[in-house]
Amino acid sequence: MDQDRRGFLQDAGKFILLTGAATLAWDYVVAGAPEQAPNYIATDHWWGMIIDIDKCIGSGNCVRACKAENDVPLEDGCFRTWVERYRVDPYDLDHPHVDSPDGGYDGFPEIDKPGDGMKVFFVPKLCNQCADSPCTQVCPVGATFVSPDGVILVDKSRCLGCRYCVQACPYGCRYIDPRTHTADKCTLCYHRITKGLTTACCETCPTGARQLVDLKNPKDPVHAFIRDHKIHVLKPNLATGSKVYYNGLDGVVR
Amino acid sequence: MGGVEGFIYPNEVELQWSILIVLYPFITGLVAGAFILASLERVFNVAAVRPTYRLALLTALAFLLVAPLPLQMHLGHPERSFEMYITPHRESAMAMFGFVYLWYLMGVLLLEIWFDYRKDLVLTWRASTGLKRMLYGALTLWSDDVSPQALRIDDKIGRFITIVGIPSAFLLHGYVGFIFGSVKANPWWSSPLMPVVFIFSAVVSGVAAVMLIYMVLCLLRRVPIDMLCLDTIAKYLFFAFLIDFSLEALDLIHRIYEAGESFGALDFMVRTRLFVSHIVVQICIGTLLPILMLAATQVMQFSEITRRRVYGTAGLLTLVGIFAMRWNVVIGGQLFSKSLLGYTTYKMGFATREGLLPALIIMVLPFVILAVLLRVLPPWGEEAHLARHKA
């Protein structure tokens, strides 16, 4: 076996580094990945997300991370996730002032003055991964579908680009990718969550306002969270079976 | 973001369905309406509209052949559209389009036209030579039996196809209405009345179109217009329009009275961005005015020339009104945000893939096809036949 001095030192260095705390940490990382993709059993999971409105500070980290992780075009009208800022005058609840400059990509410019009496909060939005999703229902060729673990995905090699799904989504979560002329949307970072990682948006949220949850996992903290908090989904009247649960969602949010 | 007012979801900047998708229900509506007019004569034995029977069938065919074109031009991947036949998603309203279309084209319209024209085709084939003989030979499908017994069978089958055809025509266009009416995400579309409104507006537009085409063709051919036929068609147009308007008014009144969650946003849209196309063009100029004009011809005695002018104007206004209705459904349904907090604008291109120019070409195409059809399958034999009968 050819082993020069340089190679020997490199191997020895790795060995020394991976002892003690490093070894323990590595074990922890491996253990933290419930299953690697080849062993991932889709039917054992039912993915959703919890969003804590009071924790969101409108940093836009999630929007930037999503665009980078999922190669989402930077142009107007292409968002897998975005953040809305609501400013509600308590005397005029029917007319909230809402903005989302570039989907919140660069955060939000300060426009409120302390003491102006407005209620201000941020609402991160993404595909609601509906259990009874209107978008999969209308797709004429079944190019968009629900995976066995409850994620709505699009098969770009089959999508006709008829845009019926974009019309059918009540939350405005779909767009047409100008490069492929096919429908695109949040996949809940399917390439990550099936490898035991969390989504890019949850990973980068500085306050932990977004949390990926597995509703089929009895040990998932989501169950305790739902029990202990007043949670709500967007547009419940449309009965889409949304799996993005909001804590502290204001009634004016649409 | 020019043209945006209030707040819209970031993905709503671009309108998804363009003027081409406006043409789709407009064209299929003309098909269904023209066919219903033709079947009046065939099934309900309304002899007065006999002169337009074949013309209505050919009009329906000319428009039906063009109907999928705007859809194809709109698709991001038109080359994949055949997948709707091979692997249709059965839960999707849109997936059935291909089947409904093919059924209507092959199972109803082409068959009915063929059985009706078979005798003429055989006679032309026998009397012609060369290329023309080959063409008509092919059109007869090499079946040259025109014995009275064979013609009786033709007539029976033709009648049967028409009886099947009427619900098929309703299906074709009611189904188009369902594509919009079943979108629960869109409060402007979501309504169980939508398919019914679409069917009756289809009848109205198809009848008006055939009436106008008949009048123009009579002018071009310098033959007198059969006024009994025209009066009868106008009467049917009037009654169909009354039903159509009642249904649309019902939808409107229901929305206004119920004043649900979306009402404020939609009401604002109709008063501002949709005011001209909805209130002025669709309701006032395109519906109330032609209804009043047609009503006048029903209750007052006008001279023949005045009636012709009234019918012509009312017919044109009707088509403008129905086109505006399609526009207001398709484009109007996308001008407001699903957040109900803002509005966007439709910017139509000209010489772009989904611009005005391709839309105009698509609208001219059925008339070119109709001109060819009229040459290959002249419907005028019917008039001579009728004249002989009268004599």
Q: How would you describe this protein?
A:
The complex is a heterodimer of chains A (254) and B (391). Chain A has 254 residues and is α+β, with helices and mostly antiparallel strands. Chain A folds into two domains: 5-32; 46-247, Alpha-Beta Plaits (2-Layer Sandwich), CATH 3.30.70. In chain A, 24% of the residues lie in helices and 19% in strands. In chain A, β2 (81-88) and β3 (97-99) form a beta hairpin. Chain A is globular and about 75 Å long. The model of chain A has no long low-confidence stretch (mean pLDDT 91). In chain B, α2 (53-66) crosses α8, α5 packs antiparallel against α7 (148-181) and α9 (227-258) packs across α11. The longest helix of chain B is centred in the middle third of the chain and has 34 residues, at 148-181. Chain B has 15 helices and two strands. Helices cover 72% and strands 1% of the residues of chain B. Chain B is mainly alpha-helical and 391 residues long. Chains A and B meet through β3, α4 and α5 of A and loops of B.
Name the descriptors.
heterodimer; A: 254 residues; alpha+beta; Alpha-Beta Plaits; 2 domains; four-stranded mixed beta sheet; three-stranded antiparallel beta sheet; 8 helices; 11 strands; 24% helix; 19% strand; globular; B: 391 residues; mainly alpha; 15 helices; 2 strands
